[in-house]
Description:
There is one protein chain. It contains 24 helices and no strands. By secondary structure, the protein is an all-alpha fold. It folds into three domains: 1-117, no CATH class; 211-314, Tetratricopeptide repeat domain (Serine Threonine Protein Phosphatase 5, Tetratricopeptide repeat, Alpha Horseshoe), CATH 1.25.40; 339-424. The longest helix has 17 residues, at 57-73. The N and C termini lie far apart (73 Å). Residues 418-424 have low confidence and may be disordered.
Amino acid sequence: xxxxxxxxxxxxxxxxxxxxxxxxxxxxxxxxxxxxxxxxxxxxxxxxxxxxxxxxxxxxxxxxxxxxxxxxxxxxxxxxxxxxxxxxxxxxxxxxxxxxxxxxxxxxxxxxxxxxxxxxxxxxxxxxxxxxxxxxxxxxxxxxxxxxxxxxxxxxxxxxxxxxxxxxxxxxxxxxxxxxxxxxxxxxxxxxxxxxxxxxxxxxxxxxxxxxxxxxxxxxxxxxxxxxxxxxxxxxxxxxxxxxxxxxxxxxxxxxxxxxxxxxxxxxxxxxxxxxxxxxxxxxxxxxxxxxxxxxxxxxxxxxxxxxxxxxxxxxxxxxxxxxxxxxxxxxxxxxxxxxxxxxxxxxxxxxxxxxxxxxxxxxxxxxxxxxxxxxxxxxxxxxxxxxxxxxxxxxxxxxxxxxxxxxxxxxxxxxxxxxxxxx
Length: 424
């Protein structure tokens, strides 16, 4: 075309964006502007959609604000489509406060913008704000219900609400989809709600989602967390195709339910028989299983395998797990040396693992060293268990004067012992 029109640019920008060619679509916008064409509302909505892409999410926040400024300067009429794109862009870049300002200015708040706001609030833990938006959404669909269920399912404090919304949506004749089932199964896992989980599985079996890897892996994870390891294995064995998540859930389930030997057998099988590459969580489950079985050398071997054979950099969770592995076996000096060898600054989980091990083996001196390091990191008292652990270790050793000093320190720092709780 000797002189492409704005419409032609818009079609091509939309096409590239739809097919994931985000950078090419942004380059076209630059060409459009350099040719003295003025973007319209549709162009801006496409730019915002592109800026929300995972490919450029790191610079999406800057693009979203810049586009918003250009919209204002260009006197473009902001319709519902453009407003929704702005809300979604701000939410995905973490600026829920900006998203809310745009959302409040919308004359008709559609279900898409409401869903974006709910998801944004839930990710930031602003549950009441999400609930307010949900209640004000007049025309609801499955997606907006899913946003609530997914948000609630992330915390044990709100997981019961996820089940209530799940029931409510079906009473209103909305049929659960794959995302619904994934979230509600997660909520059941958090609550250890075995009977509800079975009912959800019963409903799932009547759908076309039942035989998907995602759903079957979620069921394996759910039954493992219920302690129903045989039910988990039954689902696992009947899976026609398994991925790293299903293998990891089964390995972790065996490790946490008192069968570390089976966990390690599966870990070996997934690599050498099925040639599935483990991820960071798989290695965490395998090392943890070694700790429960007292297989220190095997745990060290797996830790080295993760680094050398798979080129994975250990996370702090892996370091803490290794300290727990060595500590459980009474190899406290090795555990301390291991901590000292970590190239990064050890976090509170690493030192807490050593404190717990010292309590098991009654090593007061080592417990004091670990606890002091932990106190430096957690001055806000977020690891109250460390104070209690050191106090109990000193008490077991008959060092009552030192116990009094720790209790006094807890009072001074306003640190309270975590209260016990029960589902019954």
